[in-house]
Amino acid sequence: MATTERPDHPDRSTARRPSLLALALVTGIGPFATDTYLAALPQVREALATSSTGAQLTITGFIVGLAVGQLVAGPVSDGRGRRGVVVGSAAAFTVVSLLCVLAPSAALLVLLRVLQGLVAGAGVAVGRAVISDSHDGPAAAKAFGTLAAITLLAPVIAPAIGGLVLQVADWRAVFGLMGALGALMLAAALAGVPETLPPQHRQRGGLRALGARVADLGRDRAFLHPVVVQCLATAGFFVYIGGSSIVLQGALGISSGTYSLVFATNAAAMAATSLAFRLTVVRLGARALRRVGLLTSTAGALALLVTSVVASSGDDGGDPHLGVVWPLLTVVVAGMGFTLPASTVLAQEAGRRSAGTASSLLGGSGFLVGAAVTPLTGLVGDESVLAMAALMVPGFVAATAVALAPDLRRRAVTAP
C-alpha cells in the first residue's frame, strides 16, 4: 500500500533549505555536458571515422539517457528520499565522464553517453523535486526562476570553455573536464543538498503505487497541459541544439570558436530572460510569461524560415548571412528563458503531492522529444539553415497554439 499523499509538508518551514547554487550545479550538468561538447562534433566525426548522423548520435544518446534517468529517478526519490539519489548521480557522472575519455569508437562513445545521460538525469529530476519539497507558492516560483537563471549560465560558459579546450587539446579533453565538474558537483551535493523528504512523507508500494501516481498525474489537466506545451516547444528548441553546430560550421563556414561565441551569446539571452522571469513571475504570473516566451520563439523561428526561403531563392541560392541568422536564433532561444521555467512552475505546482514523479514526467518527456528531433538535421540530408528553420517552426507553432487554446476557448464562451 502507498502511504497517504499529503498536499504539503508540515515541517517544511523548519527544515534546512538546500543551497540553490548546489542545486544549480546538479541540474545544470545536463546542459553543460551537451553544450561543452557541441563544438567538438566535427572533430569527433573525423577522429572516430563516422558520419554527421553518427556524431549527432553521441548527443542523441546523452539526451535519451537524460530522459530515462529522469523518468526513473523521480519516482525512486519519492520512495527513498532525495539526497541519496543526488549524491549517487554525481559520483556516477564523474566515473562515466572519465570512461568517455577512453572511448575507442563512435559506437562505444554513444553507449557511454547514454550512461552519462542516465546518471545526469537523476540529478536533474530530483533537483526540481527538492525545490517543490522546500518551497511554497510564490517562493517556489521565485526559486525555480533563480535556479533556471543560475543553471542557464552553464550553456553561456560551456561553449566558450569547450572552444578553448579544443584550441589546445582534442575532444577527449572535453570529457576530462566533465569528470572534474562531476567531482565538484559531488562536493556541492554533499555540502548543500540536505534530505528534504522525511520518511513519513515518502511514498511506498512498488510498481503498482507508481503506476497509480503516474495515472493520477496523466488525468490531471492542470499538470498535463504544461507538460505538453513544454514538449512541443522543446521539439523546436532541440532542433537548434542538435543541428546548429553542423549547420553553422558547415553551411556558413564559421570556426568552432565563432560557433562557441554564437551559442554562448544565445544562451546568455536565455539566462537573461530566465532572470526576468524570476523578477516578474509573482506579479505577472507564470502563464502570462509563458505566452511571452512562446510568442517570442515562434516569431524568431518564422522570421528565420522566411529569410532562409528568400536567400535560397535568390541568384546565389545559398543561406542567409550569419549577421541575419545569429540575431534571429538569439530571439528563438531567448523566448525559452520564459517558457521553460514557467512550464516547470505550472507542472510542479499541479503535481506537488508526488513531486519526484511529476518532475520525472516533465523532464523525461521533454528530453525524449528532444532526443527524437536532435538528429533530424543530419537525417534529412540537408545541412542548410533553411532545413533547420523548417524543422524548428512546427514545434513552436504547435506549442503556442496549445498554450493559447484554453484562453481562446474562455473568451469564446464569455463573448456576447
Topology:
Elements lengths: L19 H19 L2 H7 L4 H29 L2 H19 L4 H29 L2 H15 L1 H16 L2 H22 L13 H14 L1 H30 L5 H29 L1 H27 L9 H29 L4 H19 L2 H4 L5 H30 L2
Helix pairs in contact: 1-5, 1-6, 1-7, 1-8, 2-3, 3-5, 3-14, 4-5, 4-8, 5-14, 6-11, 6-13, 7-11, 10-13, 10-14, 10-16, 11-12, 11-13, 12-13, 12-16
What is the compact description of this entry?
With 416 residues, the protein is mainly alpha-helical. It has 16 helices and no strands. The chain has a single domain (20-414), classed as Growth Hormone, Chain: A, CATH 1.20.1250.20.
What are the defining features of this structure?
disordered N terminus, 81% helix, Growth Hormone, Chain: A, 16 helices, globular, 416 residues, mainly alpha
Walk me through this protein's architecture.
- With 416 residues, this protein is an all-alpha fold.
- The protein has a single domain (20-414), classed as Growth Hormone, Chain: A.
- It has 16 helices and no strands.
- Helix 1 runs parallel beside helix 6, helix 4 (83-101) packs antiparallel against helix 8 (171-192) and helix 7 (153-168) packs antiparallel against helix 11 (256-284).
- It is globular, with a radius of gyration of 21 Å.
